[in-house]
Amino acid sequence: MRPWTLAAQAALAALTLALAGCGQEADQTAAHAPVPVGSHDRCHLCGMVIVHYEGPKAEIFIKDVPEPLKFCSGRDAFTFALQPENARRLEGFFIHDLARTDWKKPDDKAFADARQLHYVYGHRVPGVMGNEPAGFGTEQAARDFIAREGGALFGYADVTLKLLEQ
Questions:
Q1: Residue 8 has what pLDDT?
Q2: How many C-beta atoms surround the C-beta of residue 16 within 10 A?
Q3: SS3 136
Q4: Ranges under pLDDT 70 in the chain
Q5: Using CA atoms, how far apart are residues 34 and 48, in angstroms rounded to an integer?
Q6: What does R_g of the chain's alpha carbons equal in angstroms?
Q7: Residue 12's pLDDT is what?
Q8: How far apart are CA 70 and CA 163, in angstroms?
Q9: CA 6 – CA 26 distance, rounded (Å)
Q10: Beta bridge partners of 96
């Protein structure tokens, strides 16, 4: 066997292993699913009993923590997720899709991948922690909400700590 052939085979094997590792990481992210909010669950950020308050709730999965961290609001969840030390460990982020559930008593069957939602911020509906990034599964549902309640449309990447300070 020629030396360059051995080198090529070794490089191919290394690439295959590297890609397999990437696939495992992606599978871990895909493996997370939101769980129902229990009657005694407390917000990971502020400690309040989650079900005592209206508005969308959230759950975050971080690396090496098997259970989701639960939040009484999307605002608290984004505040946690956007911290640099948490952002790099983020494996799953779910928020109630308000296109599929009610603001007053959100149904946990309406949790959706936060990265896929369209957000309205600056609206008139009071959130438990102040202005709430309200997530919608469709842009049209978000625009309908804006027509009723005001606010502006944002994508997931546009929700920043600076925005949440406003």
A1: 39
A2: 10
A3: strand
A4: 1-30
A5: 19
A6: 20
A7: 38
A8: 22
A9: 30
A10: 111
Amino acid at 126: P
Nearest one of 90, 91, 38, 50 to 74, comparing CA atoms: 50
The β-bridge partners of 134 are: 120
**Residue 15 corresponds to which amino acid?**
L
Alpha carbon separation from 108 to 20, 25, 59, 70, 133 (Å, rounded): 33, 26, 10, 12, 17
CB-based burial label for 106 (10 Å; 0-12, 13-18, 19+) = buried
For 18, the token pair is 């590297």
What is residue 166's predicted lDDT score, i.e. its pLDDT? 85
Summarised one tens digit per residue, pLDDT across range 4-49 is 444 434 443 333 333 334 443 343 445 799 999 999 999 999 999 9
